[in-house]
Amino acid sequence: MELIERLRNESSIQSFIVSECEDEGICVEFTPKIDRNSVLIIKVDDFYNAKHLKIRPASVDCLIIQFCQENQYQVYLVELKNVQKQQFIHRKNLHEKFKNTLYDFIRNQLVDYFYDEKYECQFRLILNAGKQENQQIKILSLDFLLSLSPILFQGKRYGIHGFPPNFVVKPCMQSSNSNI
Question: How far does Cα 20 stand from its chain's mean position?
Answer without folding.
Answer: 12
